[in-house]
Amino acid sequence: MRFNEFSEMVLPKIQDQIEITISLAQQNNNDSLRQMLSYHLGLSNEQNRKSSQGKRIRPLILVLATETAGGDWQNAVAAAAAIELIHNFSLIHDDIEDESEYRRGRQTLWKIHGVPIAINAGDALFSLSFICLGELIKRNSFETSFQAFNLLSEACLAITKGQHLDISFEKVDRISVPEYMEMIEGKTASLLAMSAKLGALIAGADLNSQNLYYEIGKNLGLAFQVYDDILGIWGKPEETGKSTATDLIARKKSLPIFFGLSNNGIFREMWDSDISTENVSQLADQLKQEGAYHYSQQKADEFTTAAVKAFDAANPSGQAVEAFHELIHILTQRKS
């Protein structure tokens, strides 16, 4: 089965579970909290509804893992919806902490409603995600459901550890590449890793297989983030939808930047001076000359290879194997 076929089959079920769960945020006749959550999740009635929902990568990885590990993806719908709610909880708080005014082409919750009520909305999504996960017991054993709660809790802690490092790095002049990799493993890769492991757990796979799926998700997450870093500096604006000058002018720290700074070369001198629209192209070229593009591409390729190797070692089977291979390609060969 092709990836598009699989996603068109499973996403409506996951979407229904998300909407049912979000409806619990309404209290008596007060619907404002549910409306805020619906807006953030892209469930509101608007023309760009699909783009405002995001790619739904994490729930798709979870159900693909369930199906290819020998299970039935329908048993994993509640967990897939819970993973997406956790992801969006982290995005709401991330937007506040980074003071990001836009996400997915729309104003963020805190920008519209203010910081206090946006924090509360994020907390509501966090709580609702575990209520949603409780639906697992209807199609799975108590033991599986209990283990799923533990895995999701571990993922939440890993995300917050990664975000802690990310915020801490803003006050530090020099960060090593290994320190950066530790940060993105928590902030970006941990939920992808746990999505895959959760899927294998629900399929009834043994611990060794669950750990292999964890490695698949982790390496996909790392590759995804490194490709994002590359596109942020050298991507084509007509494909990424944003100017490549933005990240450099904002001094957004990423793998290529940390690599360039560690060389203490001309790029380092340019970085320490003023960066403007006039010299940003020269800065990107200098960074590329000093090997940052090649190094970052090499790391992304290494993570991609590791993900494929772990997937093959897991001995996947069933109708969704082709779809999972396609998703790996989509995440690691993207242009936007």
Task: Please tag this protein with its features.
two-stranded antiparallel sheet, mainly alpha, 17 helices, globular
Summarize the structure in words.
The chain is mostly helical. Helix content is 72%, strand content 1%. A two-stranded antiparallel ribbon has the order 1-2. Strand 1 and strand 2 (106-107) form a beta hairpin. Helix 1 (3-22) crosses helix 17, helix 5 packs antiparallel against helix 9 (177-202) and helix 8 runs antiparallel to helix 9 (177-202). The chain is globular, with a radius of gyration of 20 Å. The model has no long low-confidence stretch (mean pLDDT 92).
Q: What's this, in brief?
A:
With 336 residues, this protein is mainly alpha-helical.
Shape: globular
Mean pLDDT: 92
Taking all Cα atoms into account, the compactness measure Rg is 20 Å
The span between the termini is 25 Å
Helices and strands, with pairings:
Layout: H1 3-22, H2 32-41, H3 49-52, H4 57-68, H5 77-98, E1 102-103, E2 106-107, H6 109-113, H7 115-133, H8 142-169, H9 177-202, H10 207-234, H11 237-240, H12 245-249, H13 255-262, H14 266-271, H15 280-289, H16 292-313, H17 321-332
Antiparallel strand pairs: 1-2
Helix pairs in contact: 1-5, 1-7, 1-17, 4-5, 4-9, 4-17, 5-7, 5-8, 5-9, 8-9, 9-10, 10-16, 13-16
